[in-house]
Amino acid sequence: MKFALITDLHANREALEEVLAHARAHGAAQFAFLGDFVGYGADPGWVVDQVRALVDQGAIAVMGNHDAATVRGAQPTMRPTARLAVEWTRTQLDAAQLEFLARLPLSQQRGTALFVHANAHAPAEWEYILGRAEAVRSLQATQARHVFCGHMHLPMLFHLSGTGKAGDFTPVPGVPIPVPVHRQWLAIPGACGQPRDGNPAAAYALFDDEAMTLCFQRVPYDHEAAAHKIIAAGLPPEFGERLHDGR
After folding, report:
1. Residue 28 near residue 4, CB atoms below 8 Å
2. 50-96 pLDDT tens trace
3. Residues 5-26, buried b or exposed e (16+ Cβ, 10 A)?
4. Which of 18, 15, 68, 72 is CA-nearest to residue 39?
């Protein structure tokens, strides 16, 4: 079965619409959402409703730090603009949408795969996978052969052999990568709703749990429209400006 791995949606309706359509056209039979459904973007309610509907159909969804902040209150370490977005988002969601976010688990495991927002070693602390050292720490914290994370907004892939030898490389969009179970793998698909690798196209990945392949994808979308809606909503203009150049 092909899973579409989608993370860091950040209330970006335009990006999510294109990613869902692209994933279905490329054979995705199921979806795994790796958190941060809200924050920064102008359409939190619509995005939460889309994810909730797909979860009702069997999709996987886990909590991200922006989701947690929306239902529990912003963390002291959050930047002022991010805190503003959290407070604005709360005013845009109804009780059912907030309850959905509040009930999301920090991680889910299915077959050989573990799905989590930030990392596998301390999911509730929201530490970033900055490089090989953090990836190895996460892989050593689980028996799962495939760990899928978000949080970083950058496409990344790491692997760890049974002898403890680690490696990493930058994936090429559209090129399937064998991810056999004799190694452990940690993949970050990149952000659907707010890419930060210099490419404004929405990012996600397709995981085939039968062929054991992973294919990173980039999908152009109307980021100008998404940015305009952010500014029209009265959110900090920088949230919209980031969408123009993927930074």
Report:
1. yes
2. 999 999 999 999 999 999 999 988 777 778 888 888 899 999 999 99
3. bbbbbbbbbbbbbbbbebbeee
4. 68
Domains belonging to the chain, first-starting first, are 2-245 (3.60.21.10)
Residues 234-247: tens digit of each pLDDT: 999 999 999 987 67
Neighbour-count burial of 232, counting CB atoms closer than 10 A to its CB (0-12 exposed, 13-18 middle, 19+ buried): exposed
Instruction: List the structure tokens of 200.
Output: 């404004």
DSSP state of 170: P
- Of 60, 74, 63, 15, which Cα lies nearest the Cα of 35? 63
Q: Is 235 helix (H, G, I), strand (E, B) or coil?
A: coil
Q: Which two tokens stand for residue 168?
A: 């990493």
Mean pLDDT in residue range 160-175: 90
Tell me if the pTM is above 0.85: yes
What six digits make up the tokens of 205? Answer: 């990945």
Residue with tokens 């991810």: 179
Residue 160, SS3 per DSSP:
strand
